[in-house]
Here is the input.
Amino acid sequence: MVVQCHGCFDIVHPGHIQYLQFAKAQGDLLIVSVSADPQVNKGADRPLIPDDLRAASLAALECVDYVYVNPHPTAVELLEELRPDVYVKGREYQNNNDPRFVAERDTVAARGGRVVFSSGDVIYSSSALIGGMSATTFNDEKLRRYLAQYDLGGRNLLQLVNEFTRQKIVVVGDYILDRYHFCEPASVASESPMMSLRQVRTEDYDGGAGVVALHLAGMGASPTLVTGLGQDDESGVVATRLKRRGVELSAMNARKELPLKRRYLADLTKVLKIDEGGTNPLDSKAEQALADRILRAAEDASAVIFADFGYGLISPTLLERIMPTLRKRVRIITADVSGMRSNLLCFKNVDLLCPTEREVRETLHDFTTGINNVVYSLMSQTNAKQALITLGKQGLLVFDQYRARAADQSWERKLRSEYLPALAAHATDPLGCGDALLATATLAMAAGGNVHAAAYLGSVAAAFEAQRIGNQPITAEDLLSGLATSAPMETARRLAS
Here is the structure.
């Protein structure tokens, strides 16, 4: 008699042992299916333990005969193939109407089997146990396994960074001027219950696509920024500054003045942000001129980065004009967006997308589905090859379509995801971390690295950026110092100190 159990088993605890011993007692052969990593929808940093190690832990138990890593969202497909005589679930499922379990239960019944619920006398929760633990040790191990799995030793990464100086990269997108107003909190205003600030100084930082180009120049590449500047004096100052810092500029004076974002800080805490400058779409003549600029700049480039901040420079019609030709000219095309006025779905057939989880969910209007399913939908609609989905202080997810899919196979056999913990223990200023990631990841791929090397180097760059106030360009020296230690989390501990 064949018995089957199914679950995550992220940490095997006494409750699991009793559950599996109970299941074994129901028949002669016990098969346990373990949810593959992409199917464990319990948070960005779960599972804590990779599926191969979870499976090995279960296989070591005397009561378990076979273990199978299940790539599907539920056990339905395996139940259909295996047709167990008994399917054992925990007592908590006895009155559970979750559609996933209902589908499993109906599949078992339709094939002549029966569902049995274990006693549930010993109750533990892997999630509760994990929630009470420090994640540092597990993050150390995850990083080591990640680097070992994708052959990202220090020498290989060093060689990749050394190749950065050979790369010409084109950046297309909106330039934004970020102005920080550093203030002292004076008191509560007498006329209203609001904070009263005394401005001490202001500091300007190059933002938007401008800082993406500066990151590239800082790491040794030769960037060309195709953008739109204003007709004001400030635009002339910006153009001079960018050129002095190693950025070749191909700018259209398409606006009266630059988009400006003001941030007011009380000590180092941001208390107010004011955006100045609205969307300024190009007319058909200006859009054709911009398309010509982009294609000329890309003639001998290694990669093109699109950084759309929603101010009108990048439009669907512009992308339709240039993408067929651009795709033939450059090997790597990447894209990212920011703001409600931009649209990820406009970027078709790119090699890498680098949005935040929130941007993906807002684009697809999906705030409840598991992140793996949401990203699959994004990649299906855009035909993007790979994606780095940033999760803020939790790190990022790397998505790679690594297997050909047969007509009768589900997408889970095609899409692989890897979790990479954040390398900075805390963020002094998260502004610009995504820009540093985008620039570094693109440069790594242009230099011949795979998406996993790109994700790791991008994470190192983002960790340095997170410790700095305002947009400050990452340098090759930053990356090399981050790679100088063989223990990955030492970088995080050093950055946090």
Remarks:
- The first strand starts at residue 2 and ends at 7.
- The chain has two domains: 2-133, 144-496.
- DSSP finds 17 helices and 18 strands in the chain.
